[in-house]
Amino acid sequence: MNIYLLASLLLFPLLFSCEVLGPAEPEDYELLDGPVEDLTMAEIKRFIEGDVAFNDQIFTVETGLGPIFTGTSCVSCHAGDGKGHPFVKFTRFGQSFPGVNNYLNQGGPQLQNKAIPGYEPEILPSGAPHSSLVAPIVTGLGFLDAVSDQDIIDMSDPDDLDGDGISGRVHWNTRPDYVSDRPGTITLDGKYISRFGKKARVYDLLHQTADAYNQDIGITSYFEPYDTYSGDKLNPEIDRQTISDVVFYLKTLKAPIPRDQDNPDVIAGKALFQNIQCASCHKPTLETGYSPIEAISFKEFHPYTDLLLHDMGPELDDGYTEGYAYSNEWRTAPLWGIGLSKDSQGGQYYLLHDGRARSIEEAILYHGGEAENSKNMYQGLDQNEKSQLLKFIESL
Amino acid sequence: MKTFTLKYLKINLIILGTFCFSSTFSQENEELITNKNNEKAELNMDAVFNRPTLGFDKIPVTLGGYLEANTMYRIEEGITEGLSFQARRLTIFMAASISDRIKFLTEIEFEDGGKEVAIEFAALDVAFHPLFNFRGGIVMNPIGAFNENHDGPKWEFVERPDVSVNMLAATQSNAGFGAYGKTYSGNWIFGYEAYLTNGFNSKIISNEQDKTYLPAYKEGEDIFEDNFSGKAMFSGKLAIKNRNIGEIGLSYMGGVYNKFEDDDEEVEDKARVDVLAIDWNTTIRATGTYIVGEAAWVWVQTPDTYTQQYGNKQQGVFMDIVQPAYKRKIFEWEDATFNLAVRFDYVDWNVGKFTETNTNIGDQIIAITPALSFRPTPKTVFRINYRYEWQKDILNNPAEKAATWYLGFSSYF
């Protein structure tokens, strides 16, 4: 064979097949990460800065990790911006009743159960009330952050005046000094509406970010300067710009995109979701108020939450609470992205606050308290209807 | 690897230039031994001296080196950063026979366009007996097949094996000394190496890879000046070869890697790293097929209270199969050869199960790389590689897929 012919034959397909022979790009709806639409170019650059800090910055002993900690980076708890894996489950402890944590001088409220070599991690004090928590999905947080205080108050019904058995209430809580008011902030007796976290303990995304760097990774900052190990006020181990970029990244992560919305089973399941009153707490549609980020300002979105605290019954009552919530109260978890959570949890479901539910159905069956009626109605569905409902939830 | 200042770099280049220009005649040393002519080659451990060099009349010094460059087009989950051109490394080696029994050889590598300059090898060898040679200086730790035999022109692949460079720490060299030797009997060759050198450091369990990562020790300060743990690391290898069958090597290195004492006070529990590797190479006579590979295991002691992000057991393997497919004279090149080749890579950086869930920990990569290479002479290789890889994160989430095209060359000079 002519050697040049052979070479040409081998090179020809190479030149034209580079892209064809690479792995295909996943569809947008298969991924949780990515920016919201219509960001300006300057905003996209800032999003990327935050993306790098959130997903690529690993803390080491030299860069301030610990000395006691629970994770080494943001991404160790939020792989792919999705729900956390029990491998980095964290424990919060010390508070049984609204307003008082009696274990702050014993390491509370968060247990740093890992330590760099040469140090001893914290041990849960005997008898301390506590909850184990897996990290939540972080996409779409900017939309939740931009819901107006008034809208949250309007969804609440603390005395169940409408008589539907559901009495969601606002978590009025204190907040750190370094956070700022949102447009239209409403206060009550010096307290503010907090909305993030399993117990809606956290006021906004700056509060969440600075707190997580400090409590999860052991990183001191301008905002949270106290070392979790020594209690001493230390120099910042992360700069304000990085924290600001991460906050911007979290604000501008896109909302999860539902899948299979034309599937007849999904459509039927959506109707069942309304019929058995899941939607009373897992509200399908909310609206943002004003945001300085135009792409998330005055938008309708579909998180399946009301951002309120609800009594979830004794089975989910760990005896631990935060802020001014009761121990049986949990903030309605947004359901968006739940069908993709397996992709960040090692191919398996670990649902509810501590990952105890290994399937969506199991999570439903753990519901109690204000959700008892809905659970009972779910149990009354026939097998086909249950399947339709589960398919709908998985499509979110 | 030790990073040089520009000043030292200039001095080295002046010395090299002086040797070049002071020679009125030079001749090429024909003792090039590539991994294709396994039968006549000696052991893998001899690779450091089995390189083509230029000798100079009246000066007992030989010079050589190699250059590697390539283009790369990578597609990761459907997204590409476009075409890149890379000048990966320029390596210069210089050997001197100081007397009949005393040799010196150094290998200086410039990587990424000179961003990193490193002495990979700089050792004085004193031959007392074929079974006992002293070697001291900056020595290559004899672990696996690749570390001591890493010259680009010897391989059909642009990328180095994952297990060798991303689990082990090739090219790994350390300051230290030891001995090596060989003996022969009929078709059998037996060799050994044993060195005491500086060891690893705590970077291997605290690094921006967020995994136990032996190559991270290179980020440590003064690694050629200061032994981080204060305890010597042992590395050694036993190799046996049958000229008709092939070679197999068993290598080990290990020692304490952490600074467990400071100012004579104990500040941490002692923690060890231990590495075991098996390597092999053979040529199937009937077909001319050349096979080379290595498998390695790493055990690292980490505190129970540290994070499982950093595993305490790792394993990996690579295997290359190279098939000469077409050999003839092309232009003025006698025996120009086209080779078809394929490489299999596998590394698991964290072998075990999560304590919390009893499910498998991920942190693995599998890759397969078909290749076509053209060797106009044994010293020069042009190569086209297509690498397809599946990489799982620590949580064992669905693998991220990536494909990379390479077109490049590597040549001794």
Protein described:
The complex is a heterodimer of chains A (396) and B (413). Chain A is an alpha+beta fold and 396 residues long. Chain A has one domain. Helices cover 27% and strands 8% of the residues of chain A. Chain A is built from 10 helices and 12 strands. Chain A has a 3-stranded antiparallel beta sheet, with no helix packed on it. Chain A has a 3-stranded antiparallel beta sheet with strand order 6-8-7, with no helix packed on it. Chain A has a two-stranded antiparallel sheet with strand order 1-4. In chain A, helix 2 (41-55) packs across helix 6, helix 5 crosses helix 6 (240-252) and helix 7 (264-275) crosses helix 10 (383-394). The longest helix of chain A has 15 residues, at 3-17. In chain A, 49% of the residues are buried. Chain B is mainly β. Chain B has one domain (6-412): Porin (Beta Barrel), CATH 2.40.160.10. Chain B is 6% helix and 54% strand. Chain B has 2 helices and 20 strands. In chain B, strands 3-4-5-6-7-8-9-10-11-14-15-16-17-18-19-20 form a 16-stranded antiparallel beta barrel. A two-stranded antiparallel ribbon of chain B has the order 12-13. Residues 1-41 of chain B have low confidence and may be disordered.
